[in-house]
């Protein structure tokens, strides 16, 4: 397939499937918490508007959550099909952590999701609110375990190397779970999920405000979303900076690629805003730089020395071009989110939050930007870890299954066709739900039970069945 070997095809397949999957949890994590806030406000204030918004968004959540679960199942199978050597070598560490996600997050979500979707009239307001909170908690716990696994692959600690090369857990699982990069990555990713959701909610509210500025439901969701963007975007920028400092300490080659520093700078490194990486000549062509700003950001000293990729062996360098641009996409969108939040504050101060058409158009345009940012951040993280699957311990070239390229290519083509068909249809349906404005007395999701083992006999047949 285009002259690619089995290893590259396996990497493309994993990247393609995980990119599709990451979109849905990034949305459902934030949306579950938003639903809990809406229901809590309804219980506290008694305003039916919050209940209408809850019923409006819970239908969208159900579809997004289902697509996230289905797309996530595929990821586990790929560990056995395309990455069996990685599973053998690192399975003793990552296997239990992924099992903990199922035993905690999935079980918690499965136990309360049906109550949240269909049980408000059956269990009472307070218990239903508790179920909604449990689903929101379950999405966070799921992120906790998955990020713990991935962070351990980035900054492995607490393990021992067996005689056969397997990575075995050491005496303390806490050292594995709470590895050096995990707290930073957890905070950064969860905040990204909240921002992603707020931008989607804000875009939907803005879309309906452009059609009817007096719509109270659109006003409320837009106002709540803009408060979230204005308050959380600066926090996310700070959290991202702290994450970058942690990455510099534990994965310096990744930061070198992000910054485009092919050469070391003993007297202060410039911040390269834009340019074209030239891997052949190991330089950034047409670079637009801010002198010594990179040292100021990363070392808090404009004259602090920063090492470059010239200190890293060529076969241990990450692909600079991909990491360089994905990092700039993520950071650029982050500052665009900050700008939207500040713009909304200005409009709110001028009492034009619901009348500013240009702000509403900008919010609609920014609606999908959170998804682009989380995908760009994931690419920065994962491609920047190359050439390792477990950083410093296991090379990607040593991790894949002994498969021929045609076998991997066939499954990749199948994934592409099925994913675009199935998840394309699901995404279209979500957009269809968003296109309709929320309304007073918003109907609940259809609570008609679905039985997989037959149906209850009709009343006329029950006596005969009893005889």
UniProtKB/TrEMBL annotation:
Alphabetized UniProt keyword annotations: Cell membrane, Electron transport, Heme, Iron, Membrane, Metal-binding, Transmembrane, Transmembrane helix, Transport
Topological relation to the membrane, as annotated: Multi-pass membrane protein
Residue spans crossing the bilayer: 20-44, 56-77, 97-120, 127-147, 191-210, 222-239, 322-346, 358-379, 403-431
Chief location bin: membrane
Annotated region described as Disordered, given as residue ranges: 440-467
Pfam families: Cyt_bd_oxida_I (PF01654)
InterPro entries: Cyt-d_ubiquinol_oxidase_su_1
Location of this chain's protein in the cell: Cell inner membrane; Cell membrane
Family, as annotated: Belongs to the cytochrome ubiquinol oxidase subunit 1 family.
Protein's UniProt name: Cytochrome ubiquinol oxidase subunit I
Organism from which the protein derives: Sphingomonas olei
């Amino acid at each position: 397939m285009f002259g690619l070997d089995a290893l590259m095809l396996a990497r493309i397949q994993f990247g393609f499937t995980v990119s599709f999957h990451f979109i849905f949890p990034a949305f459902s994590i934030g949306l579950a918490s938003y639903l809990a806030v809406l229901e809590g406000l309804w219980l506290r204030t008694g305003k039916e508007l919050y209940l209408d918004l809850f019923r409006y968004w819970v239908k969208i959540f159900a579809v997004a959550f289902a697509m996230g679960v289905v797309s996530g199942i595929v990821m586990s199978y790929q560990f056995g099909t395309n990455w069996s050597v990685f599973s053998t070598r690192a399975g003793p560490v990552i296997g239990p952590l992924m099992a903990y996600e199922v035993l905690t997050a999935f079980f918690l979500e499965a136990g309360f999701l049906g109550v949240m979707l269909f049980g408000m009239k059956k269990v009472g307001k307070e218990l239903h609110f508790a179920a909604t909170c449990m689903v929101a908690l379950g999405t966070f716990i799921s992120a906790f375990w998955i990020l713990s696994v991935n962070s351990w692959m980035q900054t492995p600690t607490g393990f021992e190397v067996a005689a056969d090369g397997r990575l075995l857990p050491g005496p303390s699982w806490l050292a594995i779970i709470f590895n050096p990069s995990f707290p930073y990555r957890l905070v950064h990713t969860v905040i990204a999920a909240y921002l992603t959701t707020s931008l989607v909610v804000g875009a939907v509210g803005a879309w309906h405000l452009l059609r009817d500025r007096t719509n109270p439901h659109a006003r409320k969701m837009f106002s709540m979303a803009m408060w979230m963007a204005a308050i959380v975007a600066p926090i996310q920028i700070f959290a991202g900076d702290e994450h970058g400092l942690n990455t510099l300490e534990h994965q310096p080659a990744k930061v070198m690629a992000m910054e485009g520093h092919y050469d070391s700078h003993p007297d202060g490194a410039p911040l390269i805003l834009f340019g074209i990486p030239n891997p052949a000549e190991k330089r950034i062509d047409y670079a637009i730089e801010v002198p010594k700003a990179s040292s100021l950001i990363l070392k808090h000293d404009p004259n602090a020395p920063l090492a470059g990729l010239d200190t890293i062996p060529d076969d241990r360098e990450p692909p600079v071009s991909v990491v360089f641009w994905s990092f700039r996409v993520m950071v650029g969108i982050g500052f665009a989110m900050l700008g939207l939040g500040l713009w909304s504050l200005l409009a709110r101060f001028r009492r034009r939050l619901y009348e500013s058409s240009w702000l509403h158009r900008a919010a609609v345009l920014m609606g999908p930007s959170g998804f682009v940012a989380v995908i760009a951040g994931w690419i920065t993280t994962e491609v920047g870890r190359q050439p390792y699957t477990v950083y410093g311990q296991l090379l990607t070239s040593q991790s894949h299954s002994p498969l021929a390229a045609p076998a991997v290519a066939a499954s990749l083509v199948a994934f592409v066709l099925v994913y675009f068909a199935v998840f394309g249809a699901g995404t279209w349906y979500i957009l269809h739900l968003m296109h309709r404005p929320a309304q007073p007395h918003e109907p609940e999701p259809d609570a008609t039970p679905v039985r997989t083992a037959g149906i209850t006999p009709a009343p006329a047949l029950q006596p005969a069945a009893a005889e």
